[in-house]
Design brief:
This protein is α/β, with parallel strands linked by helices and about 425 residues long. About 45% of the residues lie in helices and about 20% in strands. A hairpin with a 7-residue loop joins strand 14 and strand 15.
């Protein structure tokens, strides 16, 4: 690593740590003022944001990036408006910082409670999605944290412009610009420095592909909130409503292919397979989805005149396609479905379609994923849809934060003790 990169990152870290003190004491009014100003400017500069983003998109296309990557990188009018709406939704949320749980009097006379506090300085390392710059900064800002954002080189122009808009909002509210900093170098060694800066950064949130997460898991010294894969399943139970199953499973796969909450494997109870698979798979094939199927599913579909089916291999059950490809398996019962999810799932999001409450309850209790759903699309596993305003990421981990990480996930608790002159005897 060059000394200049190291010095730059150390300087960013020092300034973020200093800004975190100011953010911890910032009022809700200040933070909301900053967020509303950012939302206003995002809308005002929508055309400029799209124009700058197009530079990033064209460069990515020239570099041979695939369709899923380009989809994540591209900012449309809808994407930009969603960012602004997310900022306003975060404003409407209660500020968790400084809240003290009910004080309880102890035998000694002291009163004991817990206060919600910021984590401090959060480092976010992400690829391709420039909207993360706004979403992550907004959540960190509202939760009283300072943040260091290191986006991918492919989105450098978009991220730089968005960072300028954010810092304008901070300044308008009387908050330090250093509370949100974007690493402007595309040198990968900046990431290596960032993930070891334990003296400045309290937690790293990586948002990217397997190679990025694997590298950070191997090299990081700063704790992480992460998810590696989004291998999401939907299980159609024997007691499912057919029309509902078709509608929900179509949406879970085809509404968008690139997000991590898109369904990658469909599990179908053998008692309902003949009723649901032909209708559903015709929709998939009409939309150009490649079907990779086990032998029982192939038998059902071929009996109904289906062609162009691909035999599912072992690796298909453990692949996050992020593309118009779907693995389908016919299972004997809910136990086989849950065993499959346990073996191949990534603990991200899994759903059951059923009108049987007992089966639904079993699925909710036994499937060990960050989001478990009944009778709805896995595409809802999202901070905006969960009413969090936005998300800083989706965590498959179990400790501290799990699922879409919103305001509470960016805070911690500390004990506070109120005394009246008591002494320990």
């Amino acid at each position: 690593m060059s000394s200049s990169i190291q010095e730059m990152m150390q300087d960013i870290g020092m300034r973020a740590r200093a800004a975190s003190r100011a953010m911890a004491r910032a009022s809700s009014e200040q933070k909301n003022q900053a967020l509303l100003h950012i939302a206003k400017v995002v809308r005002q500069k929508a055309a400029e944001i799209q124009k700058i983003n197009q530079v990033d998109v064209e460069r990515a296309k020239a570099n041979g990036q695939d369709a899923a990557f380009i989809d994540r990188l591209t900012m449309t009018p809808k994407t930009i408006e969603t960012m602004a709406l997310g900022l306003e939704q975060i404003v409407s949320l209660d500020d968790p910082i400084g809240k003290i749980s009910a004080l309880q009097k102890q035998v000694s006379g002291i009163e004991l409670g817990q206060m919600r506090v910021p984590l401090g300085v959060i480092g976010i390392i992400y690829e391709s999605r420039p909207n993360v710059t706004i979403d992550a900064a907004a959540l960190c800002l509202k939760s009283g944290n300072a943040v260091i954002l290191r986006g991918g080189s492919e989105a450098i122009d978009s991220n730089t412009l968005l960072a300028q808009i954010i810092q304008e909002g901070l300044a308008a509210a009387g908050l330090p610009k250093d509370a949100v900093q974007v690493v402007t170098t595309t040198d990968r060694s900046a990431v290596g420095e960032m993930i070891t800066m334990t003296q400045y950064i309290d937690v790293i949130v990586p948002r990217g592909g397997k190679s990025l997460i694997a590298r950070l898991m191997a090299e990081a010294r700063v704790p992480m909130i992460k998810h590696l894969d989004g291998i999401c399943h939907t299980y159609i139970d024997a007691d499912a409503d057919i029309a509902m199953a078709v509608k929900v499973c179509d949406n879970a796969k085809t509404q968008r292919y690139a997000p991590c909450n898109a369904m990658e494997t469909l599990l179908v109870n053998q008692d309902i397979a003949q009723k649901v698979l032909p209708t559903l798979c015709k929709i998939y094939q009409d939309k150009g989805v490649e079907l990779r199927v086990d032998s029982l599913t192939r038998k059902t579909l071929e009996a109904n005149g289906f062609q162009n089916l691909v035999d599912a291999k072992e690796e298909d059950w453990q692949t996050e396609y992020l593309a118009p490809i779907l693995s389908i398996k016919t299972v004997a019962n809910i136990d086989e479905a849950m065993n499959h999810i346990e073996q191949y799932g990534s603990k991200h999001t899994d759903a059951i379609i059923t009108n049987n409450k007992a089966q639904a309850d079993r699925f909710l209790r036994e499937v060990d994923s960050a989001s478990v759903m009944v009778n709805t699309s896995t595409r809802f596993a999202d901070g905006f849809e969960y009413g969090l305003g936005a998300e800083i990421g989706i965590s498959n981990d179990k400790l501290h934060a799990r699922g879409p990480v919103g305001l509470d996930g960016l805070t911690s608790l500390k004990y506070v003790v109120m005394g009246h002159g008591e002494i320990r005897t």
